[in-house]
Amino acid sequence: MSAADGVRTRVLALGLALLAAGVPAVASAAGGPDGGRNPGRTGGGGAALPTVSPTPQHAERAGGDVRVPRTAEIVVGDHTDAAARDLLADVLKASGVRAPEVRDKPSGHARLTVLLGEATRDDIAEALRGTSAPDHAEGYALRVSRAGKGRDGGTVALGGTDAAGQFYAVQTLRQLITERHGPRRIAGAAISDHPSMPLRGTIEGFYGPPWTQAERLDHVRFLGDTKANTYVYAPKDDPYHREKWREPYPEDKLAELGELVEAARAHHVRFTFAVSPGASICYSDPEDVKALEAKLQSLYDLGVRDFSVPLDDINYTKWNCDGDKEKYGAPGRAPAAEAQADLLNTVQRGFLAGHEGTRPLQTVPTEYGDLTETAYKKTLRERLDADVEVMWTGTDVVPPEITNEQAEKASELFGRKVFVWDNYPVNDFERTKGRLLLAPYDKRDAGLSEHTSGLVSNPMNQAGASKLAVFTMSDFSWNDHGYDRDRSGARAAAYLAGGDARTAAAVRTFVDLNHMAPTFGEEPWQPQAPKLAARLDGFWERYADDPAAAVRELRPVADDIRRAPARIRDGVRDRYFLHDADRWLDATELWGEAMGQGLRVLTALRDGDDEAAEGARTAMDEAAKKASDITVDPDEHHQVGPVRIGDPYLADFLTGVRDQQDG
């Protein structure tokens, strides 16, 4: 099986799980003509459209739903994207179509005709009936039209501004197919959509154990599902990325990278190869420049067309060779920026300009996380080629917020729109020890798309567990004005749950217990367990007034926590997520059991049954100890320590129970 076939199989297994499960409409995620700020419109009094993620720029109901028949045809043209065509066939098959026929013109007999190709193709333009395809890269228009009165079936027009737009149109169609009562139906939608940010996706740029090849292949499929177009390969612990940057990759590793490039292309994801020479390069040495270009050439030969030369996490108070001192002077901010600009300009204007199909070079400057004007930024701003994309992490390495004002200032400092490298949900620093970071994306201003060229997430060491947060970040970067964190978080849970409502609810419970997102400061930028904290807030005051009612109200919370892991393990089909979350799921079940036993202690105390209270307390303490003894797998994470769940709220509740008994 080829890499593309393997990834396509995973699409059917997980990416189309929502479709196969028949996800009902949760709420309309569609936006109005103002760029996504208005709720989806029903038009003509019809039902609200199913939720689509990422949130479309404009969507409305254009008519009644179209029943999915057992037979259908796909009409393609000379410029129909192959990846979009293959995905469309998979979508239709998963919806119950036996064997979609691919034709170059409609047969006139099919009950369902799907037109796929460029939006300007005559038959597609006619079938869109005025639904405009945006004049925007990666944009698309989609319209679902029922057949004439008294007839079953209909026509779906999927028109892309370019090949990626066609692929994204199919990804949207996938989410418009629902099963409520009876056969699957395609919602009668008219959608005009495009991404707000040109670059969207992830950068594997963390410290610690890199992802496996299988995890990376799964991840680029996931990025395609969420309409993200960028995966930057920059694992800090790949020696050939950093320490051994001059050395060519061994043949087996090069073969893996080639497989990954092919898989990324199959999902319209740009595999961006990053090589980070800054810790040892001699900028003035032509041989080092040749070594760098030779490394880039080896990846170009694999099909890579996007490159990055990061210069982060290095020391610019010293040179790596005497030649740099002779050419640029004593080490310092301005000389470092001058040397770096010379290197990056050589790559941009020489190597990339001389290689067909490449896109602008990306870099991470040594000063990447502040808004202070320095000699380094001034020199880089004045000397660096205008086409080079400059990454910026916000006002700190892990910023508590990113505002439009901050992004505008950063763009001024670097002389171009910045490309945001957001260090979320990365968990490779001390304050994240023992944690999964699962909260939906938040505290980033709507309107950042006007000041930035893109946004990539730096995910966790745990690739599968990162999907929940990355899903919401893809939603934001596609349409920051239409983004709603609660709706996006619910949709991420539904995606992971394959559309099963009970499983999705369990996932949301698990997310709440793993909600904290620390910064390098004292206060986290995402709070821990906001829903659990709200349920526990004031519990002891209520307990003093009415113990029975207080316990009765809290018991469902404890039951949900205890039962969530089993529900997730039974309902989630993503083996990568289940593997990554395994120890946290174990701890969650035990903490839920401990909480339930704590409530039994309180009930027994109220009833005056000291023996039952003591037995429940023993069980409570045993469960809590087992939970506290679970540690992070050192093979998965270099920040090893006890697994943290719902802290400090769960432990504090148990302490309160002990105080009630001992007092």
TrEMBL record:
Task: Report domain GH84 positions.
Answer: 198-481
Q: Where's the active site on this chain? A: D313 (proton donor)
InterPro entries found in the cross-reference section: GH, Glycosyl_Hydrolase_84, Hex-like_dom2, HEX_bac_N, O-GlcNAcase_cat
The record's keywords, sorted A to Z, are: Glycosidase, Hydrolase, Signal
Q: Does the keyword Protein transport apply?
A: no
Q: State the signal peptide span.
A: 1-29
Q: Where is this region: Disordered?
A: 28-66
> Bias category Gly residues: which stretches?
32-47
Do the record's keywords include Hydrolase? yes
Designated name of the protein: Beta-N-acetylglucosaminidase domain-containing protein
Organism, per UniProt?
A: Streptomyces tubbatahanensis
